[in-house]
Amino acid sequence: MAADPTSGSVSPSNSPMTKPPSPRRLITDGIRNHSTTEISRALQLDRSLLPFALSSVVYKGSVPLTAYLLATERAPVDTLTPLKIATEPSVELLDTVVSAGWDLNQRSPDKGAGKGQRLIDLVAGNEDLVKWCLEHGAQVSDEAEEENALRCPPLTESVAASGTVSSFKLLRANHALIGRRTLHRAAESAATCDAADKPKRMAILRFLVEEERLDVNRMDTDGQLPNHWGTPVAYAAKGKGGEDVVRYLLAKGAEPRVKDCWGDHDALSLAELYGNEDVARVLRDWIEREEEF
User: Fold this and answer.
1) Smallest Cα–Cα separation from 160: which of 142, 172, 144, 146?
2) With 0-12 CB in 10 A as exposed, 13-18 as middle and 19+ as buried, what is 2?
3) CA pair distance 286, 236, nearest whole angstrom
4) Among 13, 124, 222, 276, which is least packed by CB within 10 angstroms?
5) Radius of gyration from C-alpha coordinates of the chain
6) pTM for the full predicted model
7) Run of H or E including 109
8) Angle between helix 50-59 and 23-33 (nearest 10)
């Protein structure tokens, strides 16, 4: 009996072809599901995605998937950048990539986020990771830093901005040089951080002034450079929460009337420029008292 053309049945020869899964989608699903099977299937479909797969699992901080790609799939570890590893870092992840031959002292490309920075620069706010890096051969300074401190800021500046006193002491014990803007970065960070981080940021600021004896009136450059604001108190004056930092630096002998490298702004004019009226009031009061004498 002939088939009824109106019955809606479709012969196998006329059935639509099932679209094969996208290898990139399989990798994404594999990471979400922690599945080496899905990632392996994706790489069978398109082996050229191996660097993408490695970068993606490292970005998510997945140690098991990273270990699988490096050991089983022979993923090229040298395609990883410091910034990618520093996105979701852990001691276990660092162990995995460095054991596979990743260069702990390489710097990020000279473009985009994290440019010119090493892994230890990028994890400066994590004391355990700083310690791990030092124990595994991370350099605290190199030729790039000495040749161009603007592109490759000294590590002590990064730790002053986001790290701890213990980390700073550890770096100094490993002969790290103190960068020119170390106190500036500490003052800026203490003035702009949230309330939860304020005690830690003030602790390293006080340490740098009272124990390291850094000059509270040191200029940040001898020439004219963008985003250079002068002395540490000027960096603090830019921050919305900088009143206590400014008061502290003034008490330690900071001179807020010193202008920046362009001769345009001092601490007070920066506070006014950034709309920090509370900071500006502190500075005006100080200037008035000084000018009375």
Assistant:
1) 172
2) exposed
3) 15
4) 13
5) 27
6) 0.80
7) none
8) 30
